[in-house]
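Problem 12. The chain below contains 211 residues. Write out its predicted structure in token notation.
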Amino acid sequence: DVCSSDLVGGANWGGTASDPSLGYIFVNTMDEASIGWIEKRPGPNGRDVFNRNSVVGSTSRFQWSDGKQDGGGNLVGSGEKAWPCQKPPWGNLVAVDLKTGDIAWRVPLGITDELPEAKQRTGRLNMGGPITTASGLVFIAASNDRRFRAFDSRTGKELWVTKLEMNGHAVPITYQGRDGKQYVAVTAGGASALDDPAPAGSEALVVYALP
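Solution.
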């Protein structure tokens, strides 16, 4: 058996963003393994073929027994409360210098609320991508901790964060309103990855004005 990360790991379909003034490209990544294996099967013309198989949707995670005598193996913690089994960070936001190919900066993307504050910056599973602005900001939701964040594109410092009702598994947009102000918006509707059920109708297009 082998452990594979291509179902939810690596970079994902959210795409990348760039800052031409810095020569940086920004990508969010995941490091979360899933269970998979290779099987040899008879193929056409007498040649064997090798098929890749995986347990779809079952990432390798810690789950905890309820500790009760004769409890029947009940597990405490499911969904996103069942943490990945490898050492964090489990998700990152990365800036790559296009001139050299070197990583300019890398920061964990997402927190694990259940951990003590000093250990929460684990990075999280994330689906969606970043955008950049000419003012030197990288906006990204994506992570399954329900946060929407802005980072300094030069340093990777987190400048702003807000908590959404649901996960923003989408690429944000930015636009200028009729009032001349710049806005940033993201759809928040990631119900499948929430720890706790969200109230009905929590799906929303969330919009913020830039200062």
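Discussion. The chain is about 0% helix and 40% strand. Students who got a different answer should revisit the alignment rule from Section 12.3.
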